Structure formats: C-alpha cells, structure tokens
Amino acid sequence: MSDCWVIAADSSRVRLFRKTEGQSIEEFDVMLNPDARLREQDLVSDERGRGLNRSRSGRFAMAEPESHREHAEKTMALELARRLRQARLDGKMSRLHVLAAPRFLGQLRNSLDEDTREQIRSETAKNVSRLDAAAIRAQLPEYL
C-alpha cells in the first residue's frame, strides 16, 4: 500500500487517491458535503432578524457573521484535516499532493495541523474534482 495520497477537492466533494504501481493513481474514497451546493435560502428557513436603530428612524436586517454555506465548507475542511492527521499518525500517509478549488484550499490550509502541512509535496489551486483519475494525474508532478 502506497503512503502517497492525492486529494482532489472542492467545497462539496473530496476525492482521495492513492499512488499505485508505476506513476498512476487510484481513487479509494469520497467525502461528500451536499450542503455546500445548496443556495443559502435552501439551508435557512428563517429570514434574518431585524433590529431597531435608535439614532435614526427605521429598522435594519442583522447579518450572520458567516453564511451557512461558508460554515458547511469550513466543517468539510476540518473533517478532511482530521482524517489526514489520523492517516499520518497511523503511518498510512507520509506524502500528500493537494489539488483543490482556491477557496477550499485556503480553508484546508487553515485547518491542517503543522505536522500534516509539512507532508504536502505540491499544491494546485484549481478545481479538478470532477475530472477522471488520468486527467487529475496529468495535473500532478511527473514523479510522485
């Protein structure tokens, strides 16, 4: 079993690949986050709260600090970071190549612990999660 993993991810799906014999990769797991694909109004049943502005006449809508969609994206990045940390600790993964949508890549960087972050050999800020394994492999360095 190879200890080199490849991640192809966006906010709604993470595909995990493992290096096989030669230089090819095979998919061994998928993590799904369907909430990241929904519209905000599909995730929230209520409208935002209303506040009263005492210095002026009128009311205003109170905004959430982050949308529910952003929260779902952060949760997915945290879950992936926990999984990668555990794989590193179990000796299943010692090299990591990450191909992710730019926004999700930033979330993942913020979620990874320092020791797991050191295992990253290459990063590509590009959404390739819908491509097949051969096309994803073509985006990676020649030698894994």
Automatic annotation (TrEMBL):
Name assigned to this protein: Host attachment protein
InterPro entries tied to this protein: Host_attachment_protein
Compositionally biased intervals (Basic and acidic residues): 41-50
Lineage: Bacteria, Pseudomonadati, Pseudomonadota, Gammaproteobacteria, Chromatiales
Domain of life: Bacteria
Annotated segments matching region Disordered: 41-72
